[in-house]
Amino acid sequence: MNVLRRSAAVLAATAVIGAAMPTMTALASDDPSPSASAVLPSGLYGSTDPKYDGVWRQSLALLAQHTAGVTPAAKAVDWLAGQQCANGAFAAFRAEPTAACDAKVTVDTNSTAAAVQALKAVGGHDSAVGKAVTWLKSQQNKDGGWGYAPGSPSDTNSTGVVIGALAAAGASADRTPYDLLAKWSIPCDQDGGGGGGLAYQPDKTGKLTANADATAAGVLGALGKGFAATAGKAPVEGYICADSDKARTRDEVARNGAEYLADAVHEKGYLVSALPGAKPQPDYGNTADAVVAMAAQGWTKPAKKSYAWLTANSAQWAKQSGPAAYAELIFAAHAMGADPRDFGGTDLVTALNATGPAPRAAAAEHTGAKKSSGTTVWWIVGTGLVAGIGIGFLFSGRRKQRQL
């Protein structure tokens, strides 16, 4: 989930909380500093106004630190846990966490799911995680997916991040969300392109339009993985998008989504943002998310070009965007089996740590690319969810393949 796009979703959600709304919110980096009346909590990471992304960026920061072998500061973890409402949900930010959550507190599935992943990783908050999971399960829509806010229509991004949270907590949904992802997975040979990708939501006519941000979230969701995903096994039969006469399986959804992302970054090595009225420019956050999704599916080979581009070009973006951006890059390094402390000359972990309270302690030096029996970590970390995608996996219908 791209940092900037998510912040644009919270604004939209806040504006229409009583009605249906989209996912991810108004640009957190639009406001370079807290408002005059705002006093940043001492345990919070980042220096911008946390109104729309406080829990989100804190969760990603803590999870990234844990992933890099760093023990987060106790007050940073306590701040996040203290943002929870009595019913288990989290809002984007609560300026007065000691006050009871009322109708004016806009809770959402994305903040809650991100907090679950972080609190479960750092440990010691099983009760909070359990309450959050119970709330998330209560928000599942009849179609199996989740929307951003309670009662809002399902979207691929929210569904993916909630699946990651449930997986992290060792929980399962009451209804399968995978049928919804398969339903929104676009056939490989769709006219006009976008084959293999996932739509954020169908439009009013039911048409599906591939979206890179949604596809990355959908791939991780189909794999049952969260933000800090490790690499899956490389495909034996090549990097392909495959259609089937039958409804697409979870494996096919993830596989086809990875192919769409690989195709999208193949030429330039990065995704391009297309915000209304803005000049197209490199989309650092979604490119990092695409790297994680491709690697999680085992497609580290097509992800290498994008990862190399990020190491050479994203340091300034992360510095300007703050802790969530550093976290996304750390997740990309982790998924690729690389060292986030040597990211194109930037130590992402030190840079992230500097945006908030100093960690309690660092674990043994995290090499990231440590080898075992001559094989990198990401190569040996397999996933049962993609084990079935071997030579013997048969698809009926049309198939396309591109050599990368």
Q: Looking across the biggest beta sheet, what order are the strands in?
A: 1-7
* Count of discrete alpha- or pi-helical segments spanning 4 or more residues: 15
Total beta-strand segments: 10
Sheet having the most strands: 2 strands, antiparallel
Question: What's the average pLDDT?
Answer: 84
Spans of at least 5 consecutive residues whose pLDDT stays below 50 are 10-32, 362-403
First and last CA, distance: 25 Å
Strand content: 5-15%
Can you give the helix content as a percent range? 40-55%
Broad shape: globular
Radius of gyration: 20 Å
The structure class reads mainly alpha
SSE ordering: HHEHEEHHHHHEHEEHHHHHEEEHE
How would you describe this structure to a colleague?
The protein is mostly helical. The chain is built from 15 helices and ten strands. The longest helix is centred in the middle third of the chain and has 16 residues. The chain is globular, with a radius of gyration of 20 Å.
